[in-house]
Amino acid sequence: MKDLTTGPEGKLILHFAVPMLIGNVFQQSYSIVDSVIVGRAIGKSALAAVGASFPILFLLIALSIGVTMGFSILISQYYGAKHMQKVQRAIDTSLVFVFFASLAITAAGLGLSRPALVMLKTPAELLDQGTIFLQIMFGGMLFLFGFATISAILRGLGDSKTPLYFLMVSTVLNIILVAFFVLVCHWGIAGSAWATVIAQAVACVLGVVHLNRSHKVVKPRWNGLVFDWDIFKKGLAIGLPTGVQQVLVATGMMALARLVNAFGTDAIAAFTAAGRLDAFAVMPAMNLSAAVSTFTGQNLGAGKLGRVKHGLRAALLISGAFSAATTFSVVLFGRPLVALFNADPNVVAIGARYLLIVGGFYVVFSSMFVLTGVLRGAGDTMIPMFITILSLWLIRIPISTWLASRIGTDGIWWGVPIAWGVGLVLSAGYYATGRWKTKGAVPLPPPLQEPLPVPPQMEEAA
Fold first, then answer.
1. Burial level of 179, CB count in 10 A (0-12/13-18/19+)?
2. Tens digit of each residue's pLDDT (9 = 90 or more) over 255-264
3. Is 4 inside any structural domain?
4. Domain count, the chain
5. How far apart are CA 23 and CA 41, in angstroms?
6. Does 52 map to a domain?
7. What number is the average pLDDT over the span 159-166?
């Protein structure tokens, strides 16, 4: 467990984010290797089927992941305030919730896989492969949710290293299994899905064993978990807006996927390949945002508002440096990077255009995400939800739809940075109001609230 309420803000945030970043590098490396094997060994139709399936997976897990994030924020705030009994109850409550939520999502996913693909206008030649992939993945939701929840608990306690170790083991195993199942056993797209489920199960089991053996203060009592309705309601109040936001993002992705699907298999395969690279490029910003959330939660819980502001400035500088480096890489090497997944010239051309258009604006994305990390860490998740609704549904999707009808797939891609720009302006404007300071589960002590300015005449009278 790591106390983030003392020490240099920028250094703490960076050190906390780096293990998460390394873990996500491993995770995305698997995703890239998996896509390369699928795209090269099975073909562009299989690669496109995986890409067409992702928005559906994301939609059904988004709400629960968002709510789980609410519990992680509560844990960080209670831990910062040294309310250890509440920390324990928040952990128990999150575990109970995630267990039943994962079962419900598995049941829904198994039945909705094929109808959802049809609704998204997925080309007929991709339906069978996409359905197989989705149903296997939904069968492993308990393990995916379990590991995600354990990782969120540990991060709320200031431990971002332990989840990294488990994720590294899972990723290496995943790569070995996907190569074996696809290249040796010739299981096709099912081999890719089974490799992911098995690797997630191993990571989940390792996490459970670690919590039982290593965290005596907050050790889960598996034979007597306490579901605290008051903490659940608080976690829901913080996490539900984030969950709704993630659902809106997921449905937005489905709407965009429907636009891409209309351009055929080549466009879907290109979008999948470029999306894998894009996910890799934005990881530093996302992990810094998560680190800033935990940092903010602990420091607001401890009543240290000044450290939150200093931490934000440091995180913006760090994320800006990462963004410049990733922009340079994907813009300069876009074509050969996309060609790793599939050598079809049309796929490469479409994917490279995505990276050229979107990659030039990573600094906008990273700044927006870091600001949002402060708001979430403070427990103020409602405004980010509304900003997402506006930037995605009122900006990105209408603009992408309008431009796609005029300039093709490039129009879909241009909607991305335009929406990021709107989101950044709105997030910065709301942060400047200071209203987020009053949203924590542990209120700031009165002496640490910012004082009102004293009128000159009162100073003179004094």
1. middle
2. 787 888 888 8
3. no
4. 1
5. 27
6. yes
7. 79
Q: What is the pLDDT of residue 129?
A: 85
C-alpha angle 7/8/14, rounded to 5°? 115
Quick check: is 226 in a domain? Answer: yes
Mean pLDDT for the chain overall:
80
Mean per-residue pLDDT, 430-437: 84
Domain that holds residue 337: 9-447
Taking alpha carbons only, the member of 18, 150, 1 closest to residue 80 is 1
pLDDT above 70 covers a percentage of the chain that reads 87
User: Is residue 351 included in any domain, yes or no?
Assistant: yes
More confident residue, 462 or 269: 269
